[in-house]
Amino acid sequence: MLRLLCFTAHPDDEAGGFGGTLHHYAERGVETHVVCMTPGQAATHRGGAKSDEELSEMRRREFAAACKLLKIKSGTVLDYPDGKLDRQDFYSTVAELTRRVRELKPHIVITMGTEGAITAHPDHSMISIFATMAFHWAGRTNRFPDQLQNGVQPHHVQKLYYGTTLFTMPDRQPVSLPPTSAIIQIGQQGIDAKVAAFKCHTSQARLFPFFEETVRKRGNQELFHLAATATPMKMQMETDLFAGVAG
To answer: Is-above-0.90 flag for pTM?
Structure first.
């Protein structure tokens, strides 16, 4: 079975950034997984939560509901502090994500670009950096060798993609997005699933109208940039993230 692993920073990133693609591949029998770094406790929109702890629990439940709707096999929310990923210990953080890669053994890893996606959120940039290093180091025996026991082995992921778009937000600081190299046609069903999954995040309800309008205006595609491959190759436009992947 083909496997896809998505690394995100906050609950709702899985839907907002990758929901159509995750649903598209799950519908085609691909085993999909999402690892979210933070429970989103620093969010501006708090859904009536009276404390960070209450908001964290609320957003974990919302994340689980969105993953179920998107037919994701496993969704995990880690305990890193929202808004402070740039202040975490690099080595230990990459070690944790590397272990996840070795345990789940994905053929493909998708995450955000180092620019931080269209919002340029620092947490988005940091999950990109952490996930990129986990992609590269998971296959090496000389990285985190203490993990290689009880059946855990190095795992060489075949392709790494960054999500991207063909637009920026004019009211924000400048952001330089990765160029598109893969276009995934998610169809009307994918758009509907993406919007519905985002709406599982009820604490963020104030964002719903803007999000849905933006998604439906942009059409039935999600775009990616091929950032690294296990087998050296020339860049070419793709319509399937699993093109050239050995099962």
So the answer is: yes
